[in-house]
Design goal:
single chain; TIM Barrel; disordered N terminus
């Protein structure tokens, strides 16, 4: 049976069709990356955005090629990963401003060259089995994934060339409809739309569920041409989701991590998706809610 986007309310109709749609971040119609038929069947039949947070970061080191491959094995619809630039302006994958937490090195990404960053061990901090992992470049991510899965590119820095490189890579790899650029910085989303309107954008926010703030955010999204809002998971309410859906905006939660209880409550209030550290577990949570519906 097909999974569906679940809502705690059965009295309210789903968002009207039109510009509202869950982004088409999914894999190709015949995935080659997973031998798990149950996961693949769920993936094909669901429109829920099960987005692997920095890859499958519960079982592999975050933001590495190993985490991307594991996310695909676990049936993620898309992979969320973080972008920064090196001293010479090369776009690489790193969440933090420094390399200290997730490598065997020390220093600020913007002050280091690509050659220096490429020498760092990006896996041993998690487990010695991943000692060969290196920091990916954006180009390497596109080449590795090769249109097998959607990408949510969380962009941390503005006016340093990241937007231009995203567009260039998405065009070259024919992935315009499978890339979403996510950021807390409105100027980044505005620039992406100027360069390539086909790429979808998502505004990341820490938004309490107050009605007037939701309405203000809707107007901001419309001005930016953004299709998706990404509120902090623990602040999302059923009313907030309804208001965004009425405005034909997709709601994708962030900050959920591996919190299964929070993920379940978000499914129940009707979010369209979320970033989660364990894609396989999230499918199981979705299945459990469908069975209880």
């Amino acid at each position: 049976m097909a999974l569906k986007i679940l809502s705690a309310s059965t009295q309210r109709p789903p968002p009207r069709l039109g510009s509202y749609r869950v982004p088409s971040l999914g894999v190709a119609e015949t995935p080659a990356f997973s031998d798990n038929e149950a996961v693949t069947d769920r993936l094909r039949s669901s429109s829920f955005l099960n987005i692997a947070h920095r890859g499958a970061s519960s079982s592999t080191p975050e933001n590495t090629y190993a985490s991307y491959e594991k996310a695909m094995e676990e049936g993620a619809v898309a992979i969320e990963t973080d972008l920064r630039v090196t001293r010479e302006g090369r776009v690489i994958v790193m969440h933090d401003r420094t390399v200290d937490r997730t490598t065997n090195g020390s220093g600020t990404v913007r002050k280091m060259t690509l050659a220096q960053l490429s020498e760092l061990d990006a896996g041993s901090w998690f487990d010695s089995r991943f000692a060969e992992e290196r920091i990916p470049t954006l180009e390497g991510v596109f080449e590795c994934l090769d249109a097998r899965i959607g990408l949510v590119l969380d962009t941390k820095e503005c006016n340093v060339g990241i937007e231009e490189e995203i567009v260039r890579m998405a065009q070259a790899h024919r992935m315009l409809e499978r890339v979403t650029v996510s950021s807390r910085i409105p100027a980044i989303l505005r620039r992406i739309k100027e360069l390539e309107p086909a790429i979808q954008t998502s505004l990341v926010s820490i938004l309490p569920g107050w009605g007037f703030l939701t309405r203000w955010t809707v107007r901001r999204l419309e001005a930016l041409g953004a299709q998706t809002v990404s509120p902090y998971g623990s602040l999302i309410t059923k009313k907030m989701v309804m208001q965004f859906h009425d405005a034909e905006i997709v709601v994708r939660a962030w900050g959920v991590g591996s919190n299964g209880q929070l993920a379940t409550s978000l499914i129940q209030v009707g979010v369209d998706g979320m970033t989660y550290n364990d894609p396989h577990e999230l499918w199981n949570l979705l299945q459990a809610e469908r069975d209880n519906d």
